[in-house]
Amino acid sequence: MPPALVSHALEVAGRLANDATDVITATAGRGARPTAKESPFDWVTDTDRTLERHTRRVLTAEFPGIPVIGEEFGADVGASEAEYRWVVDPVDGTANYVAGMPWCAYSLALMDADGPVVGVVADPYRAQIYAAARGRGARANGAPVRLPARTELAGAIVCTELVGGGPWPGMAEFMSRAAKAHTGVRILGSAALAVAGVALGHAAAAVLHSFHEWDVAGGVALALEAGAVVLDRNGMDATGATGLSADGLLVAGPEVAPAVLEWWRGDAG
Questions:
Q1: What's the CATH number where 24 sits?
Q2: How far apart are CA 6 and CA 163, in angstroms?
Q3: What's the mean pLDDT in 121-139?
Q4: What is the number of structural domains in the chain?
């Protein structure tokens, strides 16, 4: 992608993340009208739909010909064959948003055959915009972010998320293995922030047994540029021509990734 187009994409994505921050902080827990989708905790709200419509309008005007895929309104025609595509989750962690719990995000990424080209994650409650572009590094409110050196998991935090409102197969055993290594496991309700937390050094790793691309693509952009590895359940690179691997996602520092992968796969016994 031409450097000027990458710069423009990063600027527009950052602007949309700021718009989302303003809307989410103004409305969270204040009379949002949730409609249950597949389960009582799988909400969609007026805010989700409004933010995605706004995102689509802006992206269509600024980047004509690049399709958009979103959680609420699906994929534009031709998205699966396009050289580039935008993916957006307007409110990742909607159940938290509805309850007024301070842990949700807006996630947006521009993807190509090699993964995220540009990614942003808005963290409204902490007034932070995390942004990254391929080869240009990752930033938090403009300050450079780099994965801290970490060779030990004892005393660290690993994030994961439920699947369909419940534990994923092997989750109890995963948590038990982590506990034996004196590592805490946290389930906080936003895949985007779980992955971004690794890039920021708050968590040693994030393990997502199942996910949607729009949930994590922005965070993956940050993690890759901060120096993390992004693997599937088989320990292979999880980015590729068909999008992020459907076989789970492990985001971690390169030194600790093998141990967390063993906990996830059950290889540690």
A1: 3.30.540.10
A2: 34
A3: 97
A4: 2
